[in-house]
Write a structure and sequence with these properties.
heterotetramer, A: 331 residues, alpha/beta, TIM Barrel, four-stranded antiparallel sheet, 10 helices, 16 strands, 17% strand, B: 287 residues, Elongation Factor Tu (Ef-tu), domain 3, 3 domains, globular, binds flavin-adenine dinucleotide, binds flavin mononucleotide, binds FE2/S2 (inorganic) cluster
Chain lengths: 331, 287, 331, 287
């Protein structure tokens, strides 16, 4: 195994005061002053977190995936705790795009919060229709496309599980938006070949990818002797899945070293965030950890700067994918 | 948000057993000062390397904002699962990561009407404090606390300290009247013509209380207990079918729009269901 | 949600003394007196565990996957701890089939331990060659086929990730063995459609399936700034992945209700074992938990009997897939 | 297995700090009675709902099988990561889930030869006990314990109690000779013509000790420390390239064939590598 000596070839070795670390990052052409986002569905539209830290001071809020129409979401129970993780089956409860624009998005704009709007659809066309409602909003940081939705035109097969369907949704969204708005495709690791899915969305015009979404999973209520979640299966998130997320980021970065990756899945500390950045992420999103610690995005952002500084990284961007360099050199 | 919750590291200044429950007193700045009856806190459980990520919710049973420790709150813990067992085994001087005060408190009547408190098991935890406030407002107070068995009846002592009548029920008859709180509720209500019933306990009890209150032309304010992942309104796990002012039922977050609801707004029969008339249910074809 | 009242339609409601619970099970035509196995690679060939409990008293030992030739395994480090899980990259270290027959298997037979031999191969032909060496051993409980191996004839694509390759390996093994020896195909959840893979191995002659194998994952060493494991990626196991395993078992049982399933992935207690049985497993394997608690297979077997008794199940086999019945009835 | 380890719930009867380390004394039936120097125990960490699944390994520092508590063992814990920090914060009367004794002990010379003990940091934990056994066998004993700095030198007191000479080294010169244990080893060895060197500590130290022993025609017995998932020979995570009696290098489990090896068998330069001449390396093309 390779010792730290190899680091001489990378960034400087000497520790740097964390206050001097430049932790701004790039998502494609867009410069982001801070590297930690909230994960979609884990911060609603940010209001609930503003009590705990200044939500304008993190990378940004990624809003809960919004669809064309208002959705009630699923019946309860909607969640279960699992070892170092949780399972959810919310069913994309939300007010629909119009109400969202009028209320949530207006609030975020007024509050001057960097905002990534996550959108979803039941059909390719619906992705396009939702995206078009965002076309004029040039203040948005990006649009994240949640393609982990059942495609009603394809017997409920999840878009993100099929390269062609993923590409179709992204093409439609890309077309609906101006080129000023970066499009980030959100991938699931519930596939045989995540690199193949990444390739298809890049070809379709995605400016970056976000990963990973929750893993399809289930818990059974041993008293009721039926699945805990009303819908049966749900999505597994939290630190339990972090090693799967790191692997997915690693594989996609290995294939597409210049692709901006928004890494997520179980980030709980600055060290976890650094792990994803070394694997190839340009920024990270924090989801489930918020439920454990509502101040987490802010705390993790501070810890990440410290972790970078300790390792002599003066700039976050120097650390992106750095583990690949070290690993290659050790072969 | 209807208030400004804080996240803070509290310090346990005392743990005492009462029957089946552990009452934990926690010095925690920023919570006791603004909390009102019906609000709750969430607590991170299991320590630094815990496999349990989700915070556990507990009613604020009482506050003391003039203690020598600074603000102090009491919570009443029923050790049922791994998280509550961990909490119940904490000791004096241990630290706890708290968020609160959360949720909407019980609304207090403007006029001094007759009120009844109905508590099931540890659901009674937040009622004595509420009772104190009601009595300060000049309300007539009758309390009914019940449980399956004597060790699970909470609040006897606390209720007596506050005043008003107290009826205890146990299902096995080991203490007080044998039966359920709802068996004695109609009589207690009619005796002083109660205008408001406040209830906290298991959902079937709340549902029965709601029905009795309605039958008696009274208002019921119920504090519900839904599984909550975040407690701060960001996750959408804790919803209930609640009828809004326009008569539309919405899946409503019980952590920020509750935990206290006017019982008339709660569609008890439809909890854990998705009736087709719920706002946005028609869009749920896909998933 | 459905209350326990519905259970009236299933087994008796009244609790049963755990000593009276019949926890024998069936793996296809084979009756197994006890329902808990060790997971392949987590018990070597059983010797190390015999100090902690009577290894002849559990369902059986599933031996570490054996290949034709002796293998050194990978360089170290070979493991990392992760939240409620671990990552391993052993690389199927083993003595090769001949040495294994002569030493490990002879010991197991002499010790009268129910034994499932797990086999692996680099090519379809190699699976057949290893299986043929087991042909005469009619005392074996079953042969488990670890198809989570790179197929050297298909650019290293893992057999279990491809329906046709999976089927080819199983066909070859089925042909190599007599019909007295059940063939269990071990599936991975690292696929888009595990039901499709299950179908292909059933069609190829598998008598049952074992699932799930570890999830492909990675941890990064933040001091060395490279993957912890010498091989980069490795396999994630332990309670962290249990919800994924339960989901996989659920899906496959839903499609093939009569298919024997050996459930595994993070089983740590009798309650966890029951969860898998309710989802559709006929028996369970315990892997990573052994490292935490070497007495676990024995303990879990006892706890499982208690959990069954508490819920009024007089026979384990009545509980298999029971959560499907309750769930359907609630719809 | 070369012995019969047991799994048992031990009870902590004392925790004491010594410099950077915590010495934990544990009453645990079945381990103290059969353990010998060089063997180790594994401990489950983090409690009932821990996210840490893997047991942590610790040398048995000493045993007392005639204490009033029944068998007692001492372990010396260096709090480095989450598991060891948890352990170091345990208190008297806490329980610990233990497995042991595990691994092969240090081989004891049949004849009373001159021996040297070399310990790096907490690696010195198991050496005083070994020294006691060697002195009982009539061996000449010289001990060299070192660390980066004074607080990390373990065993000063214990070594003095046992007898023989003691040399301390610290890299920063804060205690004893400034430098490393291997700086003073050649002199110590030659003074009494040492026949066997026993060493425990970081791998680079063991490698250097092995070289010095070889240069001086002595045998070195080294206790290695590889990351172990199971500690009982079932998982294959803890392997080292070890040369067997036929000159063939095999990936050998350090938990059951070690942790003590004759240093001449250990291919130090090839640790964390897979040299092509290792038995079975040729079959590793696939994966
Ligand atoms: C607003 C509110 C106030 C509460 N007040 C009190 C109180 O004063 N005293 C008290 O003892 N308990 C109270 N509870 C219930 C308490 O939060 C649960 O008993 C506790 O979360 C169970 O945790 P566990 O680890 O013991 O059980 P587990 O079953 O292991 O919990 C697993 C998950 O399910 C959730 N969960 C399990 N049971 C409940 C439940 N009954 N209600 C809500 N979530 C649950 C947990 O929060 C956790 O996320 C309250 C709950 C709510 C929502
Ligand atoms: C045979 C043997 C004897 C040991 N004796 C002692 C002793 O007497 N005193 C003492 O303080 N320590 C001893 N160690 C090292 C001790 O086991 C590790 O320091 C400890 O496992 C680290 O756990 P952690 O949770 O603090 O660190 P983490 O880094 O969180 O551990 C994560 C994982 O890596 C493993 N690991 C990390 N560091 C080491 C290491 N240095 N050696 C082996 N595994 C490691 C852990 O076991 C765990 O599985 C011994 C190790 C072995 C193998
Ligand atoms: C309660 C909950 C709701 C979620 N809702 C969404 C959503 O609406 N859209 C989306 O793309 N991902 C959603 N996710 C997935 C997260 O954004 C994230 O990808 C995943 O949880 C992994 O990150 P984490 O482990 O940090 O939570 C949700 C996750 C949780 C736990
Ligand atoms: C150290 C280790 C080695 C393993 N080796 C094998 C193997 O040789 N063959 C195999 O089919 N599965 C192997 N597995 C996977 C397990 O058999 C099991 O499928 C997986 O670990 C999930 O179960 P668990 O969470 O109970 O460990 C191994 C797992 C571990 C942790
Ligand atoms: S608990 Fe998260 S929204 Fe209510
Ligand atoms: S630690 Fe498992 S074989 Fe050595």
């Amino acid at each position: 195994m390779v010792g730290t000596s190899l680091r001489g070839s990378g960034p400087a070795n000497a520790p740097i005061d964390s206050l001097l670390v430049d932790s701004s990052t790039q998502l494609g052409s867009v410069r982001i002053p801070a590297p930690v986002f909230t994960a979609s569905g884990c911060a609603a539209s940010g209001q609930g977190l503003d009590n705990f830290f200044d939500i304008a001071a993190i990378g940004g809020i990624v809003t809960k995936s919004i669809m064309l129409r208002a959705r009630s979401g699923r019946a309860t129970p909607r969640m279960a705790e699992t070892p170092s993780g949780m399972l959810n089956g919310i069913g994309l409860q939300g007010p629909g795009i119009d109400d969202f624009l009028e209320n949530d998005l207006a609030w975020l704009q007024a509050r001057k919060v960097r905002t990534v709007v996550s959108i979803a659809g039941n059909t390719v066309e619906e992705y396009g229709r939702v995206a078009r409602r965002l076309r004029e909003l040039d203040w948005l940081t990006a649009v994240e496309v949640n393609i982990s939705c059942p495609n009603v035109e394809s017997r409920g097969q999840v878009f993100a599980c099929d390269a062609a369907a993923s590409a179709a949704a992204i093409t439609e969204v890309r077309r609906a938006l101006t080129s000023n708005t970066p499009v980030i495709a959100k991938l699931t690791a519930d596939v045989t070949d995540i690199v193949g899915i990444a390739r298809s969305v890049i070809d379709a015009g995605a400016d970056g990818v976000a990963m990973i979404n929750t893993l399809l999973a289930m818990s059974i209520d041993l008293d009721q002797m039926r699945p805990v979640l009303s819908g049966g299966t749900g999505g597994l998130s939290g630190p339990a899945i972090r090693p799967v997320a790191v692997r997915a980021i690693w594989q996609v970065h290995a294939e597409f070293p210049n692709l901006p990756i928004l890494g997520m899945g179980g980030v709980r500390s600055g060290a976890d965030a650094l792990e994803m950045i070394l694997a190839g992420a340009s920024a990270v999103s924090v989801g489930t950890t918020i439920f454990n610690d509502p101040s987490a995005p802010w705390r993790i952002q501070r810890e990440l700067r410290e972790e970078l500084g300790k390792r002599g990284f003066g700039k976050l961007t120097d650390a992106i994918g750095h583990a690949h360099t070290v690993f290659e050199a050790s072969k | 948000m209807n208030n400004n919750p804080v996240q803070t590291i509290g310090k346990i200044i005392g743990v005492r057993k009462t029957g089946f429950y552990s009452v934990i007193s926690i010095a925690c700045a920023g919570i006791a000062e603004t909390a009102r009856p019906g609000q709750f806190v969430t607590v991170a459980v299991g320590g630094e390397n815990s496999s349990m990520l989700l915070r556990r919710a507990f009613s604020i049973a009482s506050v003391d904002d003039r203690s020598s420790y600074g603000g102090v709150i009491d919570i009443v813990v029923s050790a049922e699962g791994p998280g509550t067992r961990w909490l119940a085994s904490r000791k004096r001087d241990d630290s706890l990561d708290l968020v609160g005060p959360l949720g909407k408190p019980y609304p207090i009547p403007k006029n001094p009407v007759a009120t009844v408190l109905v508590g099931g098991g540890y659901g009674a935890a937040n009622l004595p404090w509420l009772g104190k406030v009601l009595i300060q407002r000049g309300c007539r107070l009758d309390s009914i606390y019940g449980a399956a068995t004597d060790l699970k009846v909470y609040g006897q002592l606390e209720a007596r300290r506050i005043g008003g009548s107290l009826t205890i029920t146990t299902e096995d008859g080991s203490l007080g009247t044998m039966g359920r709180v709802t068996d004695v509720l109609p009589d207690v209500m009619s005796k002083h013509n109660a205008a408001v019933v406040y209830a906290c306990g298991p959902m079937p009890m709340l549902s029965a209380v709601a029905q009795i209150a309605q039958d008696n032309g009274a208002i019921a304010q119920v504090a519900v207990e839904e599984a909550m992942a975040c407690g701060i309104g960001v996750c959408m796990t804790c919803v209930l079918p609640i009828i809004d002012e326009n008569g539309i039922t919405k899946m409503t977050r019980s952590c920020i729009s509750g935990p206290v609801f006017d019982a008339a707004q709660v569609r008890f029969a439809d909890i854990n269901k998705l009736p087709s008339d719920v706002y946005g249910a028609d869009a749920m074809g896909g998933h």
